[in-house]
Amino acid sequence: MTEPSLTALASARWPEAHPTGPPPPVAGFIASTFSPLVAHVAEMCLRQRHHEPPAPPERAERTAIVIATTTGDLTTAVAVARAVDTAARVGPLLFFQAVPNAVAGYIAARWGLGGPVTCLSPAAGPDDALAAALEVAALLIDDGDADEVLVIRADQDPDEPARDSATALLVRGHVAPARPDARPDPADGPDCQGVQP
Amino acid sequence: MSGERVRTRAAITGLAALTAFGRGESALLDGVLSGRAAFRPVDRFDVSRRRTTVAATLAGGPVLIDELTWAVDRACAQAGLSGAARAETGLLLAIHGDPDAARADPADREHHRAGAMAIRLAGACGLAPRTRTYTTACVAASTAIADAATTIAAGRADRVVVAAGYLVDCDQFALFDAGRALATDGAVRPFSAGRTGLLLGDGVGAVVLESATAAEARGVTPLATVDGWGRSGDAYHVVQPRPDGVGLARAITAALARAAIEPADVGYINAHGSGSVPSDLAEAAAIGRALGPAAATVAVSSTKSAHGQSLEASALIELIATVLALRAGALPINAGFLGPDEACPLSVVTAAAARAAPAYALSLNAAFGGANTALVLGVGRR
Questions:
Q1: Which of B226, B212, B343, B364 is nearest to B290 (CA)?
Q2: Environment class of B15 (CB within 10 Å of its CB; exposed 0-12, middle 13-18, buried 19+)
Q3: ipTM of the complex
Q4: From A187, which residue of chain B is nearest by alpha-carbon distance?
Q5: Is B4 exposed, middle or buried (0-12, 13-18, 19+ CB in 10 A)?
Q6: Dist CA B87 CA B332 (whole Å)
Q7: By the CB < 8 Å criterion, does A164 face chain B?
Q8: A55 CB near a chain B CB, below 8 Å?
Q9: Which of A37, B193, B225, B321 is packed most tightly, with the most Cβ within 10 A?
Q10: Of B261, B237, B231, which Cα lies nearest the Cα of B366?
């Protein structure tokens, strides 16, 4: 039995070491920091690898996107609930950003990434969310639907945007001999070399 | 697909479904074979400010965690899983989120995370506390199925429970209404002339997936097998599907390759078939691109026309409906069909046909962000 191992090709995180302001807004996304945050760490990470969008087609078509968030876009969810409860108008743009797929689609279209899109919502904190995303990245690479995966972990504090945080990793896989103590269950995490989450 | 590895097929040994047709699989099967839809006026919450006022809803106020628990228990019982076997089995859950999350006290939000619901569900059903929660909109459940099948095929687990649930709620209804995504004429008409959009529907389901070898060792006869799967992205738009269907076609091609079958072997497609104009056009293009000449003759319907769009859970309800229909030797009817759309050159199932018993079916799904999945389901008639 073998299991996949991952190598990090590029990485980015938020907050940055020397932040110059909030993540820039993204056209079509309103009222919430979540999607701009995801788009920003993805942009910083992919620019390290590919410099300018789009990515080279031969790589891009087999690059997947996996987003993991314990909180989800709470600001959008709360805004919708408040509008419904007060009989206020629900803005149509909120419809499009109500699922994390939307910002994944923004990243995929901008960079030409044609691999699978998967969004996860683990229960535990940021480190476990990143581990969950890396686990699925390893699965997709091992299964052959992707060669590289843009892994994004993002969590939002709807009451204090300064506490928003995110990590992006672009990873590539290879099949390595299994660790002797590898457990045969889907929760087994991959190795991720070269970057601290 | 990787290497020369010997892969184990993933068998479905238990399943359960709750839809607006009622509790249980017979109600769902009868519904999708009847050609009648389950849409009715919404009375679960106030829709007086909405353009559309119907959905496929159960009576009363079902509670998501309770219905998920029912579904997982029922699927595990059908699979004949002992308590010990359950305790060794992980859970993949597809949900939009905890329905109470947006209105929870901020201090209590952590307990209302989607992942927390998966842990509660696993605990309530005696499953192992190894959970993964998928929120990838309309491909959440099909991605979970593909990932479970991958895990089993790679020998990393003998058995995985996949559960999914969505109960029509006021917030999503308001969002879909605001986005003008809902049908304006009270019906979902996939691939039909005159279609106007989708309608939401209750859907809660669970399946037990296990290696065919493990099922045989337990003396359990599989209900069906997940023989192939494919996942892809469109790289096209935030929410619109790629019109030429290239992305979804790649998922279909990957699924057929994993199943080691040809397009002509596919006897039925339960399409994503949302009933929206651009989505159905793109899907028809994808089917044509991936299946070639076989695309014009393979029977196609979308069971969303009957049970509605259950968002993150829809793909699992559609998988279950497909398995039930294949086993019954009949094809689900595409409800609401008014007449052909020449831009969707498919052989749409519009009336109860003579008995049809294909060996393989495709279940297709697509979502915002250009996420696509294709599953090949088999019922052992190869």
A1: B364
A2: buried
A3: 0.96
A4: B130
A5: exposed
A6: 36
A7: no
A8: no
A9: B321
A10: B231
CA distances from B76 to A171, B21, B84, B202 (A): 36, 22, 12, 21
Phi, psi of B165 (to 5 degrees): -160, 140
Residue B68 host element (H or E)? helix B64-79
Contact B137 A184 (CB under 8 A): no
Q: What are phi and psi of B247, to 5 degrees?
A: -65, -50
Sign of the C-alpha dihedral computed for residues A29, A156, A91 and A98 taken in this order: positive
Residue B93 parent element (H or E): strand B90-95
A165-177/A191-193 β-pairing: unpaired
Going by C-alpha positions, the residue among A110, A130, A73 that lies closest to residue B96 is A73
Alpha carbons within 13 angstroms on the beta-carbon side of residue B39 total 26
Probe site for chain A from B100, B368, B373, B375 (most A CB atoms < 10 A) = B368
Helices (DSSP H) in B232-346: which residue ranges? 246-259, 277-291, 304-307, 314-328
User: Among A145, A155, A179, which would you mutate to test the B interface (most chain B Cβ atoms within 10 Å of its Cβ)?
Assistant: A145
Tokens of residue B287, six digits = 């089917």
Q: Dump pLDDT digits (tens) for B257-310.
A: 999 999 999 999 999 999 999 999 999 999 999 999 999 999 999 999 999 999
Res B33 pLDDT > 80? yes
For B127, the 3-state DSSP assignment is coil
| Shortest CA gap B368–chain A (Å) | 6
Convert the pLDDT of each residue in B217-232 to its tens digit: 999 999 999 999 999 9
Tell whether A87 lies on the interface with B, counting CB pairs under 8 A: yes
The mean pLDDT value for B331-348 works out to 97
- Residue pair B16/B71 in contact (Cβ under 8 Å)? The answer is yes
CA neighbor of B89 nearest in space, from B109, B108, B75, B105: B75
Q: Nearest Cα to A194, choosing from A9, A44, A13, A53? A: A9
| Residue A56 identity (one-letter amino acid) | P
| pLDDT for A177 beyond 50 | no
In this structure, what token pair is assigned to residue B307?
A: 């049970």
HEC-encoded secondary structure of chain A: CEEEEEEEEEEEEECCCCCCCCCCCCCCCCCCCHHHHHHHHHHHHHHHHHCCCCCCHHHHCCEEEEEECCCCCHHHHHHHHHHHHCCCCCCHHHHHCCCCHHHHHHHHHHHCCCCCEEEECCCCCHHHHHHHHHHHHHHHHHHCCCCEEEEEEEECCCCCHHHCEEEEEEEEEEEEECCCCCCCCCCCCCEEECCCC
What is d(CA A76, CA A101) in angstroms, rounded to the nearest whole number? 14
